[in-house]
Amino acid sequence: MTTLLWGVLPYVTLAVLVAGLVWRHRYDRFGWTTRSSRVYESRLLNIASPAFHYGILFVLVGHIVGLFIPESWTDAGGVSEHAYHLCSLYGGTAAGIVTVGGIALLVYRRRTRAPVFRATTVNDKMMYVVLVAAIVLGMVAKLSHTSGDGYDYRQSIAPWARSLFTLSPDTDLMGGVPVLYQIHVVFGMALIALVPYTRLVHMFSAPVQYLFRPYVVYRSRDPEQLGPRPERRGWERAGS
Amino acid sequence: MRPMAQIAMVMNLDKCIGCHTCSVTCKQAWTNRQGMEHVWFNNVETRPGQGYPRRYEDQERWRGGWELNRRGALKLKAGGRLRKLAGIFSNPELPEIKDYYEPWTYDYKNLTDAPLGDDFPVAQPISQLDSKPMKIEWSANWDDNLAGAPAHGDLDPMVERARRQASDKVRFEFEQTFMFYLPRICEHCLNPSCVASCPSGAMYKRAEDGIVLVDQDRCRGWRMCVTGCPYKKVYFNHRTGKAEKCTLCYPRVEVGLPTVCSETCVGRLRYLGVILYDADKVTAAASMRSERDLYEAQLGVFLDPEDTGVRRACEEAGIPYDWLEAARRSPVHALISKYRVALPLHPEYRTMPMVWYIPPLSPVVDALTESGHDGEDARNLFGAIDSLRIPLEYLAELFTAGDVGPVRSSLERLAAMRSHMRAINLGEEPDPSVPGAVGMGTYEIESMYRLLAIAKYEDRYVIPTAAVGDARRLEESALPQGCSLDYDGGPGMGGDGPFGRDSGRKLLPLVPVENFHLLRGRQTADDTADTTSITPTTDAEEA
What we know:
heterodimer; A: 240 residues; mainly alpha; Fumarate Reductase Cytochrome B subunit; 61% helix; 1% strand; globular; B: 543 residues; alpha+beta; nitrate reductase domain fold; four-stranded mixed β-sheet; two-stranded antiparallel sheet; 26 helices; 11% strand
């Protein structure tokens, strides 16, 4: 079980993520969008959406720092374990509260504003469940281990996460981790695996290139696309 | 010099009767789909009026287009790149659907399914956003023909600005009011702020013909283009989550046909043609310090297709010969640069729009005739322009950033043309001082008359086909790879093998020998074409 959860599942997640992104990019570029509902309702969205998105970006940065910056580095930088814990507790909790508040408002808006609700698919609803679960479970795990310097995940979860990338997963490290953290990690992996198949995929089109391109884009007609598109293998024209 | 070609449009507002045929045919062709219920790539507004979407011209609210920063350089009015990315999670300058109007249908089923009762059943309006009964409060042309003008008329942002200049000139009392129609499509600007606003780089201006398009596969639905466009002619499809806009009917234009709105225009008021311009001059022209210099600056960007130096530069830049010829015959170039009667819509947005308008003169003539004067007499007409029912100030707010000079000169040329042609029609000796007064010659004013009044189809639409330049490539891409006769049993038969043409197990005859299978195939096939090929599998399909 330990091997399955902490040795196999992470790689399955990664494979599903990468395969999903490639599949989506090849076959569903048209569906790759934020699917914004801003035009239906804007008053709540103007508060909730930035709160959620900035909150979750901060949470993401926190996770990257926590998992991929080894304790020895922060020690060398003169940051004591206690100071780190306080930072992570208060910073993380603040970002978490903003995020949860944002998504709570977003879900409320989605449920109560009829046009927005009508534009919600089953896919969206499932995604919301996993997303909210992952966020809330993370908050619960953190806040239920606050005594002293809290639970030091940098001795267990972080080395495990790093060991995944060296292709030698140290599954034993995860054995002693509190159950709440374990559940959070599993939901986190589920969320990552879901990204390419839901509207969350828009996170991979963050338009950073906008900062560097010229304002006005010129394009020539693509000679490849002047005639009918060549038929793709496996896609037969209906009715022929 | 970096010459480029652009398909541009001019609309003669004198002829617009506000029948909305262009809007309806455009809707049928392009936006008759779910998610686009509220979208009209082409719409006709009654001016004065709020327009569509409501008060779109109020750029202090919607922040469309460009402005100059403190150093005098162009910047997007809604904020630069960093500001755009920082605000990507919510953009307060984006109109909601209700700023256009809430799309609806009617509960027609109730007309037949309602239980028997004392009252006639009615078809209630149903919102297409949430499927609930709704009260219809606005639509794309709610204030058509000044409907509700005493209540809404003052909400026109251009009325507000014109009043600042001439407080008593715009009136909504029935006896003193005025109106005209303004059909609008995407301006296909030379300096498009929607393209500049797109974070994904999905919007682009086509290098060959200047048409501004959205790449549906690259659009990620950030919606900055909707804010960026000051004319609000980029729309958000709320079902697909992608931006869509007027395409200038590029599939038609590419084969030399006019756009659907032009083709179906009842008043025949639209002109399509090629304009050559110098892409290197666009930024400088759009950055003129004074908004009132922008019209002249844009004229300065256009190139004269008769100039041999320009023609040589165009050839070097790869503009096909038939495009150069089309530019010489272009009605749009004539109306904009030669006769100078067409004016850009809102040059102050600094986007260098490419759909221009000939301001309306007719109400002047009508007003003069009503007051007992000869409406087409040159002396009366020139004098009346300044006391126009449609105040010059209002037209100037639309077309020249408030500068009445170019509007007056355009209307005077139209007035001179009427007066001159009237003399000819009445068999009088035309007074050469009339065209002279507006700086035109007799021949010039008569050719302008032919273009504006006779307006033959082939004079209104001079559209070079994209296909001529691309004919070979087009042909090759439309055909399967390799020779089309090169199939098993076909005349090409895969070319010569190493042992000569007739060797190997191939079906030889060029004309298939009649045999049992061929005969049966021909007699039982649904499609006559099927019978000619014995084996339908071709090399191209296998490849």
